[in-house]
């Protein structure tokens, strides 16, 4: 199993974790910024993380892995490779999460749901609902980063590689502002 520091090192190296002084889309300030998708630029690092996470779901009879597009497509594929399972992804159709492209699940099939980051667990829950519509069995959820502090309840056991609490501050209370550090607005939306 990868140690927390090894995972942090991969996140720093691949640009997932930025440290400095940031203003988030919420307007709050933070000393850390996380953009999980960036690890997917690096197949070797991404494979390393997925192999570690998949190992926690071995011997559970999983035959399909499903994640929500776009963020979890590559992750689903890597996880499925490790588990000897099929890799599927859900998409939104008129706002509703669904399996398209003739993807299907068998009744009773044991399914792992994956997502790169879990915060409230909303998208994971939506994918679990899709799995249930096929009378398949969602046996668990695998996420790279848990930003809920382990509090997200999605109705199935959640395994994460790492739990992350990112402290945020109102601009007027920000200790980094007080230190006079220049504030950076990351280019893309916060997860
Ligand atoms: Zn600040």
UniProtKB/TrEMBL annotation:
- Which residues bind orotate per the record? 119, 147
Superkingdom as given in the UniProt entry:
Bacteria
Class in the EC hierarchy, top level: transferase
Which CDD domains does this UniProt record tie to the protein?
Answer: PRTases_typeI
Give the Gene Ontology MF terms in alphabetical order. magnesium ion binding; orotate phosphoribosyltransferase activity
One of the protein's GO biological processes: pyrimidine nucleobase biosynthetic process
| Coiled coil ranges | none
Enzyme nomenclature, EC number = 2.4.2.10
Task: Name the coenzymes or cofactors required.
Answer: Mg(2+)
Q: Which reaction does it catalyse?
A: orotidine 5'-phosphate + diphosphate = orotate + 5-phospho-alpha-D-ribose 1-diphosphate
Which keywords are on file for this protein? Glycosyltransferase, Magnesium, Pyrimidine biosynthesis, Transferase
Q: Per UniProt, where does 5-phospho-alpha-D-ribose 1-diphosphate bind?
A: 115-123
Q: In which pathway does it act?
A: Pyrimidine metabolism; UMP biosynthesis via de novo pathway; UMP from orotate: step 1/2
| Residues in the signal sequence | none
Q: How does it assemble?
A: Homodimer.
Which PANTHER family does the protein's record reference? OROTATE PHOSPHORIBOSYLTRANSFERASE, URIDINE 5'-MONOPHOSPHATE SYNTHASE
The job of this chain, per UniProt, is described as: Catalyzes the transfer of a ribosyl phosphate group from 5-phosphoribose 1-diphosphate to orotate, leading to the formation of orotidine monophosphate (OMP).
Q: Provide the family line.
A: Belongs to the purine/pyrimidine phosphoribosyltransferase family. PyrE subfamily.
HAMAP family in the cross-refs = PyrE
Protein name per UniProt: Orotate phosphoribosyltransferase
Q: Which organism is it from?
A: Moorella mulderi DSM 14980
């Amino acid at each position: 199993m990868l140690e927390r520091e090894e995972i942090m090192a991969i996140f720093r190296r691949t640009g997932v974790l930025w440290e400095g002084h940031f203003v988030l889309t919420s307007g709050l300030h933070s000393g850390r910024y996380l953009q999980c998708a960036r690890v997917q630029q690096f197949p070797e690092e991404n494979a390393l993380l997925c192999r570690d996470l998949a190992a926690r779901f071995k011997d559970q009879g999983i035959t399909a892995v499903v994640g929500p597009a776009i963020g979890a497509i590559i992750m689903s594929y890597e996880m499925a490779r490790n588990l000897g399972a099929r890799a599927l992804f859900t998409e939104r159709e008129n706002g509703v999460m669904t399996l398209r492209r003739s993807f299907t699940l068998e009744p009773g099939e044991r399914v792992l749901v994956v997502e790169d980051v879990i915060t409230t667990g909303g998208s994971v829950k939506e994918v679990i609902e899709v799995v249930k519509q096929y009378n398949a069995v969602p046996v668990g959820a695998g996420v790279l980063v848990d930003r809920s502090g382990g509090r997200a309840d999605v109705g199935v056991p959640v395994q994460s590689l790492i739990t992350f609490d990112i402290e945020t501050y109102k601009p007027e209370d920000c200790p980094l502002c007080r230190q006079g550090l220049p504030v950076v607005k990351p280019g893309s939306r916060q997860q």
